[in-house]
Write a structure and sequence with these properties.
By secondary structure, this protein is an alpha+beta fold. It has three domains: 153 residues, FAS1 domain; 92 residues; 147 residues, Multidrug-efflux Transporter 1 Regulator Bmrr, Chain A, CATH 3.20.80.10. The chain is 40% helix and 22% strand. It has 15 helices and 17 strands. Strands 8, 9, 10, 11, 12, 13, 14, 15, 16 and 17 form a ten-stranded antiparallel sheet that branches. A seven-stranded mixed sheet has the order 2-1-7-6-5-4-3. Helix 1 runs antiparallel to helix 9, helix 10 packs antiparallel against helix 13 and helix 12 packs antiparallel against helix 13. The longest helix is centred in the middle third of the chain and has 23 residues. The chain is elongated, with a radius of gyration of 28 Å. The N terminus is likely disordered.
Length: 441
C-alpha cells in the first residue's frame, strides 16, 4: 500500500514537470531564473546576500525558488527590511533554507519526505490533494534542469522556524531546569520541582514566542494550562517535564543536522558532565569518561535484585516498590547483569547506600537482597543510546582491551550501570558497561 501511494505520487509529480529544452540545461541556475522573469525579488535578495557566485558555481544545487508573487504575499515591509545591510545574516539564512546540496528531483522529495538545506535544518516534503508541497508551500513546477542544478518553483517563501542561537538558548534553559528539577523531584520535593519546570516553560514562551514553532508553543501552553488546574505537584512536575522533553527532542533533531563530520577515530566526550540524581553507594568510584576504557575498584555493597530478561519496566517497578515499602533511599546507579554475547539484560538491582541498611534474603515480589564482595572492573562510559547494539559494541571494546592487557582476565558476569531516570532526556543519560576482572596468574 505504501509503495503504491509513492508510485501514484511520483506519476503525478512527473506530470507537473516542465518540459525542459537544451537551452536551460546549458545555463546556470541564476541564468535560467533571470530569463523566466518571475524571480526578480529572489535574484535581488541573492545579490544583497552576496550569494550570486555560490549559485553560479559548478554545483549541483537544488533551489526551491519562490516567485515574485510569493515575496509579495509576505507581510508589508518584510522584503525591504530583509534587504537592509544590518539584516544580511538573517537574509542569508532564509535564502540558504531554499537551497539543497546535490541534485534533488521531485521524485526524490516524494520518496524521502525530507531534505536537508544549506541553512542546516530540513524542509518537509508531502503530497496533498494531488499536489507536491514543501513545508506549507505548493510546488508549482518541478525539475527545471540547469547546468549546475535543478529548480523547483514554489508559491511561498520558506522561513526557518527557529534560529540556531535561539534553539541553543532554549536547550540550555531546559538542561538547566532538569539539572535542578530532577534531584529536587527525587527528594520528593514535588512542588519545588514543578515550580522549576513551570518557570522554564513560561520563560521559553515569553522569550521566544515569535520564533518557536507553533506545535511547540501548543505543547507548552497545554501543559501550563493543565498544571494551573491541579494541586497534585508530582503529576504537575511530570506533565511539565514531558512537555519540555518534547520541545528539547524536537530541537535536538533539528540541530543534529547542522554539522556532520566523519571522524577517523571516535574521541572521548571530555566535556560531557554526568548528572547524578541520587547519592551513590558508599565508596563507589565516580562515573568514568565516555568511550574510554578504564579500571575501577568497587567496595563490597548490598543490592536488591530481581531476575528476568524481559519486562524491564516491570522489574524496575518491583524494585521501586521494595525500597518504598522498606523506607530505603534510592541510589545511583541501577545495576543490570547483561549477557556477554547478546548484551541483553539478565537481572536488575537497586543498590543500598551501605551494607548496614535492611537485611539480606528473599523478599516479597520476587526481590532478593544480597551482599556482594569488593571487585575490580574494566569500564567504558556510554552517553545517550544504550541499545543492545551499542552495548555489544562496548563489550567488544572491553574484550579488545583485555586482549591487549594480558595482566587482567575476565572474572564474572558482565554488567550495565544506569545512572539516570526517565526524567533525564535520552541524549543526556549516562551508562557504563563493565566486565569484572582479576589479575592473571
Amino acid at each position: 500500500m505504501k509503495n503504491a501511494k509513492k508510485l501514484i505520487c511520483t506519476v503525478v509529480v512527473a506530470l507537473m514537470t516542465l518540459s525542459v529544452g537544451a537551452e536551460t540545461k546549458s545555463k546556470t541556475l541564476l541564468e535560467v531564473a533571470q530569463k523566466t522573469g518571475q524571480f526578480k525579488t529572489l535574484l535581488a535578495a541573492i545579490d544583497a546576500a552576496g550569494l550570486r557566485s555560490a549559485l553560479s558555481g559548478k554545483g549541483p544545487l537544488t533551489v526551491l525558488a519562490p516567485t515574485d508573487k510569493a515575496f509579495s504575499d509576505l507581510p508589508p515591509g518584510t522584503v525591504s527590511e530583509l534587504l537592509k545591510k544590518e539584516n544580511r545574516e538573517k537574509l542569508i539564512s532564509i535564502l540558504k533554507y531554499h537551497v539543497i546540496a546535490g541534485e534533488v528531483r521531485a521524485k526524490d522529495l516524494v520518496n524521502n519526505g525530507t531534505a536537508a538545506t544549506l541553512e542546516g535544518s530540513e524542509v518537509q516534503a508531502s503530497f496533498r490533494q494531488g499536489r507536491l508541497n514543501v513545508n506549507k508551500a505548493n510546488v508549482l513546477s518541478t525539475d527545471i534542469v540547469t547546468a549546475n542544478g535543478v529548480i523547483h518553483v514554489i508559491d511561498k517563501v520558506l522561513i526557518p522556524e527557529l534560529g540556531m542561537d535561539t534553539a541553543a538558548q532554549i536547550k540550555n534553559l531546559i538542561e538547566f531546569a532538569i539539572d535542578k528539577g530532577v534531584p529536587t523531584f527525587n527528594k520528593e520535593q514535588y512542588e519545588a520541582s514543578s515550580a522549576i519546570y513551570y518557570i522554564c516553560a513560561k520563560s521559553i514562551l515569553d522569550l521566544s514566542k515569535d520564533e518557536l514553532k507553533t506545535d511547540m508553543q501548543k505543547i507548552l501552553k497545554s501543559a501550563l494550562k493543565t498544571v494551573s488546574k491541579s494541586r497534585d505537584f508530582s503529576d504537575n512536575a511530570w506533565t511539565l517535564r514531558r512537555a519540555l522533553d518534547k520541545v528539547y527532542n524536537s530541537l535536538e533533531q533539528k540541530t543534529s543536522h547542522q554539522k556532520q563530520t566523519i571522524p577517523t577515530k571516535k574521541k572521548t566526550d571530555s566535556k560531557f558532565k554526568v548528572l547524578i540524581e541520587s547519592k551513590m553507594p558508599e565508596g563507589f568510584p565516580a562515573p568514568g569518561p565516555v568511550n574510554e576504557v578504564i579500571v575501577k575498584n568497587y567496595p563490597a555493597y548490598r543490592a536488591a535484585r530481581v531476575a528476568g530478561t524481559s519486562m524491564q519496566n516491570f522489574s524496575f517497578m518491583r524494585l521501586f516498590g521494595h525500597i518504598k515499602k522498606n523506607n530505603i533511599s534510592m541510589t545511583a546507579p541501577v545495576e543490570m547483569a547483561i549477557g556477554k554475547n547478546d548484551g541483553k539484560q539478565r537481572s536488575m538491582a537497586f543498590l543500598y547506600r551501605s551494607t548496614d541498611i535492611g537485611s539480606t534474603g528473599k523478599q516479597s515480589g520476587g526481590v532478593n537482597v544480597v551482599d556482594l564482595p569488593s571487585k575490580r572492573y574494566i569500564s567504558i562510559g556510554i552517553r545517550g543510546n544504550n541499545s543492545t547494539s551499542v552495548i555489544k559494541q562496548s563489550i567488544e571494546k572491553l574484550e579488545n582491551w583485555l586482549s591487549q592487557n594480558k595482566q587482567f582476565s575476565a572474572d564474572g558476569e558482565h554488567r550495565l550501570l544506569g545512572y539516570n531516570s526517565p526524567m533525564v532526556p535520552a541524549s543526556k543519560r549516562y551508562w557504563e558497561v563493565q566486565v569484572p576482572v582479576k589479575r592473571a596468574n
